[in-house]
Design goal:
alpha+beta; 98 residues; four-stranded antiparallel sheet
């Protein structure tokens, strides 16, 4: 039984090696796929949710404190969106149609 297992394992290993050699892997050249642009533009600006009372608004250029619950919200979908706290304490994401 042990000899059959060893023979099957050896045959399987040989088959894997042969198949691996029959289908070579081609690597893409790095130079053609990578676009290196030495000119970098600084488009990142500081912005955060400013929370006053039960409403949080996205304010570009805001450097003040951001409450812990607002740190994971991310930027709004449009400039007219904000977060508002409901009567039961849950925050709701709202957007005006302006």
């Amino acid at each position: 039984m042990m000899i059959k297992t060893l023979l099957c394992s050896a045959a399987l290993a040989a088959a894997v090696l042969l198949v691996g050699q029959a289908t070579p892997v081609e690597a893409a050249p790095l130079g053609s796929a990578v676009n290196i642009n030495p000119v970098q533009t600084n488009t990142v600006q500081k912005a955060a949710w400013q929370c006053i009372g039960r409403r949080c608004s996205w304010v570009p250029g805001y450097w003040g404190p951001v409450p812990g619950y607002a740190r994971s919200w991310g930027p709004p979908q449009s400039p007219y969106c904000y977060w508002k706290q409901g009567l039961l304490g849950r925050w709701k994401y709202k957007c005006d149609d302006d």
